[in-house]
What we know:
Layout: H1 24-49, E1 61-65, E2 68-72, E3 81-86, E4 90-95, E5 99-102, E6 108-118, E7 121-122, E8 129-133, H2 141-144, E9 165-169, H3 174-177, E10 189-197, E11 202-209, H4 212-223, E12 226-231, E13 234-239, E14 243-247, E15 257-262, H5 269-275
Antiparallel strand pairs: 1-2, 2-5, 3-4, 3-6, 6-7, 6-8, 9-10, 10-11, 11-15, 12-13, 13-14, 14-15
Region (Disordered): 1-20
Transmembrane segments: 25-45
GO molecular function, one term: hydrolase activity, acting on glycosyl bonds
Amino acid sequence: xxxxxxxxxxxxxxxxxxxxxxxxxxxxxxxxxxxxxxxxxxxxxxxxxxxxxxxxxxxxxxxxxxxxxxxxxxxxxxxxxxxxxxxxxxxxxxxxxxxxxxxxxxxxxxxxxxxxxxxxxxxxxxxxxxxxxxxxxxxxxxxxxxxxxxxxxxxxxxxxxxxxxxxxxxxxxxxxxxxxxxxxxxxxxxxxxxxxxxxxxxxxxxxxxxxxxxxxxxxxxxxxxxxxxxxxxxxxxxxxxxxxxxxxxxxxxxxxxxxxxxxxxxxxxxxxxxxxxx
Length: 278
């Protein structure tokens, strides 16, 4: 006889475990945190990798005085130096000063601009300033400036001493560079100015040489026909025709210069050279 089928008693109802509820404000907080993290990372990397460029200098002023130009500008906070440029890229100065003398500027119209430096970083340049300058000794102006009382600081003016007027001469003589038979192809004399003080009765000149050896070679050549003398700034030689050459041995900054004096009926050579404001 077949057994009856029985159904097991029903147990308590079962439900899946509760899923966590994600609320809108939680999502917003996560998004904000992610954005802040990204922004912070960006500025951290920028702080480590970016270069701070100095501000461009302001207040550039140019004063074209006699035989030179003076440029001044305002200091830039944080700058370690400055670079002054003339015309199409001629670097006149690179250093820490905010007042610079351009003693070699040629006559004519010129423009200047200055940039601030921070190590190897260069700021944008300042607005350019233009100026017109008069005649100068050009690249040899710093040599002439060694004798501010003795020599005129521009070719078209007179010196303070004796109203001396001077002209330049080509530096290399025939025996130095040719075309004479004795020319050796080398420049020994860098620059020469020939002057006349008190009209033409007190002629003299200043010679600058390429090296101490070059100066001593010229001095030794003159010694063959001259007698040695002392003057108040060093040693000298005077030949039988009254031409004297004098070295400046008491000032290392001018040791490459030599004074040449010609004797005239109105002037004794040694007296004249001792009276010079050197």
